[in-house]
Amino acid sequence: MKSQTTWSLSSLLALPALALLALSKASSEDLPQACDTSNSCEIGQNCTCTVPANSYRTRFFYFNATPIESGNNYSCHLDGMLGIYEGASVPEGAKVECEDPCRTFPVRLTIDASNMTETNGSAQVKFQAPPSDTSWGVTFGCEG
Questions:
Q1: Which of 32, 35, 102, 119 would be a feasible disulfide site paired with 98, CB 3.0-4.6 Å?
Q2: Reading across the β-sheet that carries 136-143, which strands appear in turn?
């Protein structure tokens, strides 16, 4: 004899909300430390932090990649759920190129330091965190 399960419309509608709540709770417990306004990241490392929830205002964060050495090229990435790339500052003579699409995450950058006037320096990558009622992780890294 087969058993039948009867679902009410209200219980079916509640399932996605319960799943989202469970996912939100699990993922918020697994997120890394909160992002500082300015975050240092050495070349060759992936640096991850959590953008805290803030439903009311846009915030800006920075990753500082060090060291950028004259004569080298670097491939960088900026990944996350909601971020918007705002630009990069590099030492004089260095150039930054961004793969399309360049504004929304994920972002891929190339830093060409072949004509950099200093021996070494740092690159500062700026991103915007729009208002959100959930925390989310962001990862930055450069290889060169």
A1: 102
A2: 46-51, 136-143, 73-80, 107-112, 95-98
- Looking at residue 144, the DSSP 8-state letter turns out to be -
Reported pTM: 0.78
Number of domains in the chain: 1
Q: What is the mean pLDDT for each group of 10 consecutive residues in the chain (144 residues)?
A: 46 40 48 92 98 96 97 97 95 95 94 96 97 96 96
Domain-embedded: residue 104: yes
- Residue at 14 is within a domain: no
Q: Where would I find the H helices in the chain?
A: 9-30
pLDDT at 53: 95
Q: Please report whether residue 115 resides in a domain.
A: yes
Distance CA 69, CA 112 (A): 10
